[in-house]
Amino acid sequence: MVATHSCKVLTARAILSRLHIFFHALAILALFYYRFTSLFTTTSSLARLTWALLVIAELILTFIWGFAQGFRWRSVLRDVSGWESIKPHQLPGLDVFIVTADPTKEPVLEVMNSVISAMALDYPPDKLAVYLSDDGGSPLTKEAIREAFQVAKLWIPFCNKYGIKTRIPEFFFSPSCDRERLDWDHDYKAQELLIKSKYEALKKNIEKGSGDTSKCRMVHDRAPYVEIVNDNKQDGESEAVLPLLVYVAREKRPSHPHRFKAGALNALLRVSSLMSNGSYILILDCDMYCNDPTSARQSMCFHLDPNMSPSLAFVLYPQTFYNASRSNDIYDGQARSATKTKWQAMDGLRGPVMTGTGYYLKRKALFGRPNREDEFLTSQPEKAFGSSTKFIDSLHHNSKQNIELKQMNKDELLEEARRLATCTYESNTLWGDKIGFSYECLLESTFTGYLLHCRGWKSVYLNPTRPCFLGVTTIDMKDTMVQLVKWTSGLLGVGISKYSPITYAMSRMSVLQSMCYAYLTLSGLFGFPFVIYGIVVPMCSLKGIPVFPKISDPWIAPFVVVFVSSLVQHLYEVLSGGDSVRTWWNEVRIWFVKGVGACLFGSIEAIMKKMGKQKTTFRLTNKVVEKEKLDNYEKGKFDLQGADMFMVPVGILVTLNLLGFIGCLYRVIIYHNYQELFAQLFLSFFLLVLSRSIIESIAKKVLFF
User: Where exactly does CATH 3.90.550.10 map onto the chain?
Assistant: First the structure.
């Protein structure tokens, strides 16, 4: 069997989506016709002000909705087959980059499971290298990776011998994996017990070290440190060849900018070019495990296709989260809309965005444009790549799959690697600009992927039945909001910069692809119309000022159609993807909460940064899964601990709408003017029903404070 890939256009979805776009757009046009004609005929100055505010809110919503239609134009579904037939000599070199920054927020045991699972990929070990960037410089992480390698020495041969699919030790030894732990024979059982004892010892030592402040700490002022934990050489006849394993803690000084995760990835780019120089790179978050060992081979079905490879930058896999509830994901932590709808849609255009983890990237794509990857090497490469002649020489020889370590002795190699990991190496070069991962945005992968698309590169999206990567998602309100504030601030910062998809991308990619990126960068603005509607409608209800047509007026139809059409289209999207009505309701509810909370704060932060009133700050998402929070999440209970700031606007709007609903109901009963106020009464009622669980959680927090 030959390794192949297929692409199926979801024609039925595309036709229905285009018909809905046309139908919905007509309703929006009718709505605005009514709004503008009524706005100029209103005599009351107060009524005119309220209508003007609502028109602004509706224009923003329409603006964002228009960009979102790029996701609905042409969705595709890809599949691969025959990857098992790819011979080892046909496979290119592969480097795996794993980045961690804080041992208190990113549990070291999870990091080690990521490292071990990456080393256990179904890939020739002499062509596989794993690099761990410890941006916190923690002594505990350094010790742990040495001990984790001792586990890997037993674990990887065991997985290969018995065809183990779950190559994450923590999962394999858990009760959920009992089906895979079969009693093959006495030798199997003996090896399993030996590996388990080694892994339990690793866990115990990490837990002990996590309580030691001298080990579980971050060092922010340090020299560069590079250690080859495994040198990819066979020590004896009985020893199996294992992938290269390297620990990197780049130099950090308070007086020099370190560029956060992008800076760490660029340091790994340079160090890895010197040591293994894999043609392709797998980027992983420190909590993202390799759940399917064949993912690398599957991605090569695309990368090795001569018709696709010259312009293909990366193959993206969906982020799947093992702690996300399948039936009641109250925080929408699994990002269903992105993984099941948006990325498929962008794949039908020029390709999906480059999310922060789980993608196989062509190394050369970070150094130039398609068919012009060496454009910065032809003249004065030192100005682009820095002064290391050995590093530049590795770029000239990038077509070779590996640079043997024996070309330099170990001391020389480590000395040069440390030089490449210094904080001054990038000075007066193109790193972070036209070379490597971009420093323009804190969401380094997303923005770098956007630039790659602007330069002419393409990408593909592959979503196999078995999740290739498993990670941890947020399971409380605080972490959910903090994460979304970071995303909103970073993306909107791009949307209002010189790199805005509305201006910068329109001439560099298709209009539909630009619309998709415009939606991603500007969707954080949802918070402003939510706040306007959440204040104006109940206040007008209390004053008895109608802001919608009478229920008997034919002009109420466009408002009803827009409202119902949006909900029905979203419901269809959820159900057609195999999810439930509960999932749809959870997404609508958290969409409102996130919009009023995180999106509003993130948008304000982005605007303040643009005005120079606020400095760029990096927020690391907490990856620690606490049992109490997990229990509340699985029961469908909102955990608001630490989220007070984000809940303030939510609480204010809910309170206003409760008062507006009561006042509106009073006027309907006493004055019988339900014709004029019915729409406002319904909107406030819908918001209260939508927020019922949030109201209960806020009430409990206040009562037990």
Answer: 90-319+355-473
